[in-house]
Design brief:
Oligomer: single chain
Pfam families: CAP (PF00188)
Domain SCP: 42-150
Largest sheet: 4 strands, mixed
Strand content: 15-25%
Protein name: CAP domain-containing protein
InterPro entries: CAP_dom, CAP_sf
Number of helices: 9
Shape: elongated
Helix content: 40-55%
Length: 262
């Protein structure tokens, strides 16, 4: 091997050593940093404990929505809650499968996790989002890019995803506790649920004396008006029906119901 060949060989080895040393840095650039996201959650829950509010629970769907937005922040530069052509935070979270009736978002860019947390705590709206007793879930994403950390935290009040039958069962149980019998046939109530008023094709003999329709994400309490009617002891039977909610944008989780009292 000539001296030139040896020099070329050494240069070749040095080149690939440089590439190998650079690979960890290249892999880190633009990637999601789960440990840092977990650190931000711990810091948030420490701040909530100091404020006397319950801890946040991790929500994978919120984290996925936060991840997608954080990647966009890292690629587009100046941080923002919504970029041109991007869905808003409730729509982004809804598409990833999150179920909620309240959602807030914090975004930040800084050199360290501690600086991100400190910035949120020093900002009144960001601090209020983090410490709100109204939220119980969080999804966080952190992305390293251009020597800084981009972060998104989506806070929400989680709503359990229930089927039509499960919703009807929940409210049937609440009504039965008042002493009113709940009919097994849901067809009339489901038909009433779809309509704004009246009943389709009902026999006059089976017309209910009272109909109530409403939408809510709360399946643990009866509406006051309905509870008052049940407490009047004027009714012996009830029919419960659920149908698709009519939310404005379809991203907030709520349930639509109709209850017929006989």
């Amino acid at each position: 091997m000539t001296s030139l060949d040896k020099r070329l060989s050494l240069l070749f080895v040095a080149f690939w050593l440089l590439i190998a040393m650079s690979l960890p840095l290249l892999a880190q650039e633009g990637r999601e940093i789960q440990p840092e996201a977990e650190q931000l959650m711990r810091l948030a829950n420490q701040a909530r404990a100091a404020a006397g509010v319950p801890p946040l629970q991790w929500d994978r769907s919120l984290a996925e929505a936060a991840r997608k937005h954080t990647l966009r922040m890292a690629s587009e530069g100046p941080i923002a809650h919504q970029y041109p052509g991007e869905l808003n935070v409730s729509e982004r979270a809804g598409l990833t499968g999150a179920h909620f009736d309240l959602i807030e978002e914090n975004v930040a860019v800084a050199h360290t996790i501690e600086a991100i947390q400190d910035g949120w705590m020093q900002s009144k709206p960001h601090r209020e989002n983090m410490l709100s007793p109204e939220v119980d879930s969080v999804g966080i994403a952190v992305v390293a890019s251009r020597g800084v950390l981009y972060a998104t935290a989506d806070f929400s009040r989680n709503v359990q995803a229930l089927t039509q039958e499960q919703v009807e069962s929940r409210f049937s149980e609440l009504i039965q506790r008042t002493g009113v019998k709940v009919l097994a046939d849901h067809r009339a109530a489901r038909a009433a649920c779809i309509m704004d008023k009246g009943l389709p094709g009902s026999d006059s003999l089976s017309q209910p004396a009272f109909i109530m329709r409403w939408e809510s994400s709360d399946v643990t309490h009866l509406p006051k008006q309905l509870a008052d009617h049940l407490a009047s002891h004027q009714f012996q039977e009830a029919a419960v029906g659920s149908c698709d909610a009519r939310g404005d944008d379809g991203t907030f989780t709520s349930y639509r119901l109709a209850v017929l009292l006989y």
